[in-house]
Specification:
The protein contains eleven helices and nine strands. It is of the alpha/beta class. It folds into two domains: about 100 residues, no CATH class; about 140 residues, Glycogen Phosphorylase B (Rossmann fold), CATH 3.40.50.2000. Helix 2 links the parallel strand 1 and strand 2. It comes from Fervidobacterium nodosum. Keywords: Transferase. It holds the Pfam family PS_pyruv_trans. One of its GO terms (molecular function) is transferase activity.
């Protein structure tokens, strides 16, 4: 491994590689940070300058608000040495419009979920995954509908707000965000998940645990591949009570569909890697 903040290590690693792969996530968006968007874009351009094929595996594109960032994204996707495995339909259609080297794929994390060995248990009524800069008061209403609650931040930047929410609700708190296995176990120990982060929702849907998303457009775009139901997505917890019983009575259970999609996606990835590696020699 190398430090992504050490430009000299990055250049050496790119130069010594046959292929550069961006594995999963919404890296090419400027909602979270323009600096982050420019960083990931610059690594792609650096790879292309060294004539290295770039595979965006299990990626979603956007949202991209700034015109300059849109131009950069468009110019990247138009490059015939870029190969997009899009994890949602919007990204797939946009990528396909610009570059025929585009396929619809799974989120790479599904492969790990298939290997995860754990049994569902009934410890918590609700697991909450908040996000930094959330409106803390909006979670207070959940005490009316759930008794046994645990707050689980998914990223280090969310720990402080998770502590505050747990204190307000008088509930349990999980802070070890680096222990993904334990977080998975806690999700499987919960009867309901409400999250402002994407991947806990993916986990819930994979294992058939009722969930409601406060995350926004990224989650809606991703799940559009599997369902046209909209009761899983709300903008605020005020609307949650209208959806709880509907979601509980008929949760998504996407394990089989996601496993099949992941198997196909990884096979396509391996075939492409073999093809590109032979071309580089």
């Amino acid at each position: 491994t190398i430090s992504r903040f050490n430009i000299f290590e990055l250049i050496d690693a790119i130069y010594d590689s046959d292929i550069v792969i961006y594995g999963g996530g919404g890296l090419l968006q400027d909602i979270t940070s323009t600096k982050s968007f420019l960083y990931y874009s610059s690594i792609i351009w650096l790879s292309l300058m060294f004539q290295k094929p770039v595979i965006l595996f299990g990626n979603s594109l956007g949202p991209v608000k700034k015109l300059t960032d849109r131009f950069i994204l468009k110019s990247i996707l138009k490059n015939k040495n870029v190969f997009l495995f899009a994890r949602d339909l919007v990204s797939y259609r946009y990528g396909k419009w610009l570059n025929s080297n585009t396929v619809l794929s799974s989120d790479p994390s599904v492969r790990h979920l298939k290997k995860f060995q754990a049994q569902k248990s009934d410890i918590y009524d609700l697991l909450i995954v908040p996000r930094k800069n959330s409106n803390i008061e909006k979670y207070d209403i959940l005490k009316k509908y759930f008794q046994r609650i645990i707050v689980c931040p998914a990223q280090k930047t969310d720990i402080q707000i998770a502590r505050t929410i747990a204190n307000r609700l008088g509930c349990d708190l999980f802070e070890n965000v680096d222990n993904t296995e334990e977080l998975l176990s806690l999700i499987l120990s919960s009867n309901f998940v409400i999250s402002e982060r994407f991947h806990p929702l993916l986990v819930a849907a994979y294992f058939g645990i009722p969930f409601i998303s406060l995350e926004g457009v990224k989650t809606i775009r991703f799940f559009a591949k599997y369902t046209d139901r909209r009761e899983f997505f709300v903008k605020d917890t005020v609307d949650v009570f209208k959806r709880i019983e509907i979601v509980k009575s008929n949760p998504l259970n996407l394990k089989d569909a996601m496993d099949e999609e992941a198997e196909k996606s990884f096979k396509e990835l391996y075939r492409l890697m073999i093809k590109l590696s032979s071309r580089m020699r």
